[in-house]
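[09:14] KT: can someone run the structure on this one? pasting the chain below
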Amino acid sequence: MEAIFKRVSVRKYLDKEIEDEKIEKILRAAMASPTAMNQQEWEFYVIKDKSKLEELSTVTPYSGFVKNAPCAIVVCSKRETTREEFRDIDCALCTENMLLEMAHLDLGGCMIGISPDKEKIEKLNNMINIKEGLDAFTLIPFGYPETYKEQEDRFDLEKVHYI
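[09:31] RB: done, structure tokens below
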């Protein structure tokens, strides 16, 4: 539970490379998440190249900070799956697992929504040359946080209903 309450969106990073072992742990956490009918319809692109991160900072109006991240991961999903209606849900679950593992590893990241916006999907697909049959779901820049902040307590008993 510690990682859940430690996780916050981080948009400012130290200029420090992320160890390959930590990236693998993040990807393992992603692939451990549940999927509809166990489809595991995801693939991942890890971007460390500074010029590519600079380019990715233009993919949405909210992605400018990507250029200062030491690393980013693009979560992609297969276009054709048995249960297409669950594709984005499955990718969101694996994204949350990644963000929680980042928090556990004293890293910070931020999910930048791409799907279901077809223009953003196509733009990101083209920027990193995503292979045919896949679509970008989200862009997650991450790194060692420049500063640490506490997560606010969002628990609100008024939003809980017992039947």
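[09:33] KT: thanks! Residues 112 and 118 are 14 Å apart (CA to CA).
[09:34] RB: yep, looked fine to me
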